[in-house]
From TrEMBL, chain A:
This is Large ribosomal subunit protein bL20m. InterPro entries: Ribosomal_bL20, Ribosomal_protein_bL20_C. NCBIfam families: rplT_bact. Belongs to the bacterial ribosomal protein bL20 family. Gene3D superfamilies: 6.10.160.10, Ribosomal protein L20 (1.10.1900.20). It comes from the Eukaryota. GO terms for cellular component: ribonucleoprotein complex; ribosome. It comes from Cryptolaemus montrouzieri. Keywords: Ribonucleoprotein, Ribosomal protein. Pfam families: Ribosomal_L20 (PF00453).
Automatic annotation (TrEMBL), chain B:
GO terms for cellular component: ribonucleoprotein complex; ribosome. HAMAP family: Ribosomal_uL13 (MF_01366). Keywords: Ribonucleoprotein, Ribosomal protein. InterPro entries: Ribosomal_uL13, Ribosomal_uL13_bac-type, Ribosomal_uL13_sf. The keyword Hydrolase does not apply. Belongs to the universal ribosomal protein uL13 family. It comes from the Eukaryota. This is 39S ribosomal protein L13, mitochondrial. The lineage of its organism: Eukaryota, Metazoa, Ecdysozoa, Arthropoda, Hexapoda.
Length: 152, 177
């Protein structure tokens, strides 16, 4: 390549080494030992941390979705209705609430959630979805001890 | 204010459940017990929220393993020394400690994190119906059994069995085994 201008003879070296490394050290500031002070070790760990962060953005959403399902399922069981029946019945009733909203209602507004469960139960009964649990029949009272112990 | 305070106590209070393991599959029961031990049956559940309940399990001596698992299921143990491996069949383990199969089933059904040991401390296993009075007085709920407990033939009333409608009368010389 032929350079016609004198400026291009100067070697271009990118950003200054100090500033380039400083970006990495800032990300490694809270690490322990040589990971925060030695550049070659710091950059390895920073790269690994950034990969975890990238994966974590996806996993966080999945974890939250799992948590909402667990909470809604727990709320449903308290009112004696199966989770899938509950969601299906609410859809048929045109109550289109998301899992997050339902989980918030189950956690913070239990009476609202109970009314939703009642609506779902009536709908499930009308539509003949036979997944309602036997919660009504169990009294929740310890009655087995009153029976004889020598049954086994 | 005081109402809110009491509400807070009531929400986070530990409930004591009792579960009759007689004739139950321990591996199906483990899922139910795990749910109550970790507090996953409450809408306030969060992995960092210490809201698990206590469960007392009675009659763990009378669990029912599916199929031929009494003979086939093997529990592994290693002492750490060379040649220290040992394999114990389920029926052998059950004769040594009638609570161990259920305990291991619950323990293995949970994720192996730091919380697991503390969660297991809330599980109280008893081989029969002999439960200490100080534990039993806490109990306020009974967990429903996963499958109905069948009634044995010799536990029925003798006259009821005798008068039960029969299809045929067996011959006198027929040997019943």
């Amino acid at each position: 390549m032929v350079f016609t201008s004198i400026v291009n003879y100067v070697r271009a070296r990118g950003p200054d080494e100090f500033w380039r490394k400083r970006k990495i050290f800032k990300l490694a500031a809270h690490y322990i030992g040589r990971r925060r002070n030695c550049y070659s070790i710091a950059i390895r760990n920073v790269h690994r941390a950034l990969v975890y962060a990238t994966k974590g953005r996806k996993l966080k959403k999945l974890d939250m979705a799992d948590l909402w399902t667990t909470r809604v399922r727990a709320g449903c069981e308290q009112h004696g209705i199966d989770y899938h029946t509950f969601r299906e019945s609410l859809t048929r009733e045109d109550i289109l609430l998301s899992r997050k909203t339902l989980a918030d209602l189950a956690c913070w507004e239990p009476l609202t959630f109970k009314s939703l469960a009642d609506i779902a139960k009536i709908r499930a009964e009308n539509d003949g979805i036979n997944c309602l649990s036997r919660l009504e029949n169990s009294d929740g009272i310890v009655s087995w001890m009153l029976k004889n112990k020598n049954e086994y | 204010m005081s109402l809110k305070r009491v509400q807070q106590w009531a929400t986070f209070a530990r409930v004591w459940h009792i579960y009759d393991a007689a004739w139950q599959n321990p591996f199906d029961s483990a899922k139910l017990l795990r749910k109550h031990l970790m507090g996953m049956h409450k809408p306030i559940y969060h992995p960092l929220n210490d809201c698990g309940d206590h469960v007392i399990v009675i009659n763990s001596k009378y669990i029912a393993l599916p199929g031929d698992e009494w003979k086939k299921r093997v529990y592994f143990h290693h002492t750490g020394y060379p040649g220290g491996a040992s394999w114990t069949l389920a029926w052998e383990l059950h004769t040594k400690d009638p609570t161990m199969i259920l305990k291991k089933a619950v323990y293995n059904s949970m994720a192996g994190n730091l919380q697991r040991r503390y969660t297991m401390e809330r599980l109280h296993l008893f081989p029969d119906t002999e439960v200490p009075e100080n534990l039993l007085k806490n109990v306020s709920n009974q967990l429903e059994q996963l499958r109905p407990k069948p009634k044995r033939l010799d536990h029925y009333d003798e006259n009821y069995v005798k008068e039960f409608p029969k299809l045929i009368d067996l011959p006198k010389d027929y040997v019943l085994r």
